Request: fold
Amino acid sequence: MHKSALRFVAGNGLLDRRAFLKSGYGLTIATAIGLSPAGRALAQTEPSMPAWMTSLGAGDSPYGSPSPHESQVLRQPQPSTPQTAGFSIWHSPLQHQRGIITPSGLHFAVHHNGIPAIEPERHRLLIHGLVERPLQFDLERLMRYPMVSRIQFLECAGNTAANALSPTALDGDCRELFGQVSGSEWSGVPLSYLLHEAGAKSTARWVICEGADGGSHSRSLPLAKLMDDAIIAFYQNGERLRPSQGYPLRLFVPGWEGNVSIKWLHRLEVSDSPAFSKDESGLYTRILSDGDILVFGFPMEVKSVITHPSGQQRLPELKGFYEVSGLAWSGRGRIAKVEVSADNGRSWAAAQLQGPRLDKSLTRFSIPWQWSGAATTLLSRATDEHGNTQPTRSEWRSRYAAHSFNHYNAIQAWRVQRDGSVENVYA
Ligand SMILES: Nc1nc2c(c(=O)[nH]1)N[C@H]1C(S)=C(S)[C@@H](COP(=O)(O)O)O[C@H]1N2
Ligand SMILES: [Mo]
Reply:
């Protein structure tokens, strides 16, 4: 195939997302840009025999761990938060993740009261209040119910707050700016099974959900949502929850702000009204620009970020082929499309959505890019299956009162400089 077969689909070098799918086409691109094995690696001399090929390797261990060469891939304490035993926030290194599953040890974390040292044999889950039959479960009985598994995202309401608040764009990486979102396969018992068994009374509308951490983190949730798709999760990515994620069990409420997915869950009180707990009347209430107050605005909005290339990365060559790739998600359903711009929004092209494209899940997108070497700004804009799409930063800010930061979902811009450096900017 000839080089001219490369089809540009938007300004500044964005290539047809299907380029690599057509047979023979991928090789054309690779050859055109000098990345193919024939063009490069094999141009070297004799094959060598490194030390590890001349002796037997090491033994293995009962629980695997990452390669020591990947020791830089770590969660990071949120720089703006004084990390105390009582309150800490850890960010997930999104710029090192591929696919849509966050390794359990790298899942972001928010602890309002530290991590309780729960003894699983002594932990109980109580369901009481406006029910026909109050119930109390130990772990053994709870885990005998049929379980479901779903791949879904969890995002803190305050994710990307710095870009909402800071008057000038902070020079942070993807972990610092976007790292309070993660994706996992969560397995557990649908809460509807337990609520059916307890039998909600006709006046029941809300459930007050409380954790067993000292400080009793609690939120009120509409009974209808809990009956619809909430689960009591015991497993994350095939193994029992990490203490950081709520061991031995947590509430998982798909698509809604992370704060309501109560970790170390121990009590569900069915009620006719919300409790107006500390968190729901304070930090998680939003003030709109006209002064209206939005309480109980739960779903996380459609959002996306390019993870490759992203803030503080450096493109190794100062022009040529790169794959632009990132993550998109919506608390209201599936991602329908992600558009990418390589010219600061003058033109856009549809990125490839990599399967599986799941409900309320991280979705991976990518698009091939032939970088000319000139400074430019990369943007991504996701749209979900209901037609919701991302606002610009100024549109987002005009909806909310000054100093608002929760549920920030504006289009992210990364500036690529001529020296290959990548920086957070406001478009
Ligand atoms: N019991 C309890 N549940 C909690 C919290 C907490 O501090 N205590 N933090 C909440 C917040 S603010 C978020 S964003 C999510 C984070 O879940 P993760 O730490 O598993 O990522 O848990 C929520 N559930
Ligand atoms: Mo949160």
Residues 107-113, 154, 156, 211, 213, 217, 244-245, 258-259, 261-264 surround MTE (ligand 1) (CB under 6 Å). The two ends are 38 Å apart (CA to CA). The domain at 303-425 is CATH 2.60.40.650 (Immunoglobulin-like). The helical segments are 25-33, 139-142, 161-165, 174-178, 191-198, 223-229, 278-281, 393-399.
